[in-house]
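Annotators were shown the component list below and the corresponding predicted structure, then asked to write short factual statements about the assembly.
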Amino acid sequence: MIMKNIVFAVLLSFFSASLFAQGANIPNSLSELLNTDFFTQYEEIRERAHTSVKAFKKLSEEENYSAEDVEIVRDAYTASAEKFNEILLNVKNDLLSKRGRKMLLKFPDAYSSNLEKQLDFANEYYEQTFRKEIARVTNGEVLGMPFLELLPVILKGMKIAIQVIKKFQAEVRKYNDVMLQEHLVEKYKFDDWSKLI
Amino acid sequence: MKKLITALIFCGLFGSHLIAQETDLGNVSNVDWNYDTLTEKIVITYDLSRVGTERYFQIAVGAIFDGQPFTPSTGALEGDVGSYVRSGLTKKITWDVSQDIFFTENTSLQIKVTSRKVQSTTTQTTGTTPMALPEPNIFIPIGAGVLGGGLVVAGIGSQNSDNVKTYKSTCDPSSSTFSASATEVNGSGTSPCDVLYDEAKKDHSTGSLLTGLGVGVILAGAGWFIKQKMDESAALSGLRGGDDAGLKIEPVYEVPNLIGNGTGLGTLGLRFSLKF
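Structure shown to annotators:
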């Protein structure tokens, strides 16, 4: 009976360890993918937006902007962030689904073009709402950092990312939702307004 | 046929109902307008409420001018119209009506303000590549067509070979050139027609095989091409959000204008479009 328990405990610890390892280890293909310009520049975009929000929040404490104006800027940021985060979610879903992978590998140009459209729209939304409102409310003191010059680099990075996905097709098929959510979405997504202090 | 027509009319009517309800988010209220005789401009005011957490909308103005639907030109509109209009009270649009219609105070005019989700106003700015449609590989279907066609031609040729022709003309009793002597058995125990029959049968079989093979190759090529197109269409449909590529059947329905000087003619029909 004691022997049985020991065997069970050992098996359980092995099982837990393997589960932990699954979450902690990033496959080579994924780390190579996340090192492409698509993700590094995406991170840069996100940092710029975060910096603008932090600068606005700091200034709003000194300047006492109206609650309505702060709410408008907050909503504009949140909606813009949603647009950008949606792109990450789309990429994640495409990597997870057979159809998405097929689409990505078979029609890389169309896929990049579509992503370009999404990025352009997210950028336009950010420009027309968040940047416009932040400049209006702060009277030009905070302008909101633009992204435009980063977008072509991101797009170029996407094409390289597709090559990486092509190279590691078999490994990419094994990606799971938890892994991609953690390393691809959570790591690069725009943070919630309340978290930016 | 009757059933088909009934179905088409039904589709048309049902579809038109769906179209009538499209896109307007219904968050515009208190639309009012005034004609400023001094500036000869129409000032439209309205309230725009939020939809969930969304604050920004695409606003459009429509009008019914003397009973006829009318869309003001973009250049004639100014103010809270177009893309990225923020929700709020007493939004204002100025319509330089003189640019579009001859307006007098007796003109019958109705104005409608509609809102939709914001759409991208720019084309791609980050690169030079437009939404690239994948180039279909046409060499395989063309190759299959040429090969299949060649096989069919060769097959038909073989089915009509000299042996077959000679057999038909000489050994077929219904033929005008039938030769009874050719059917006579000679010393070897066979007639010339027997020999010819074997040869003709061989040619006919080969011909049938080649024709079948050719048709098969053509069908395979066509099937491959259709499959590729369907894959491409499905992929692009996914890329574009699923509402663009593929076969589309849209009802076309316009209400007849029975007011004013209208002709009273309406339109009812279906539009079929196949987008690759």
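Statements collected:
1. Residues 4-121 of chain B form one domain.
2. The radius of gyration of chain B is 35 Å.
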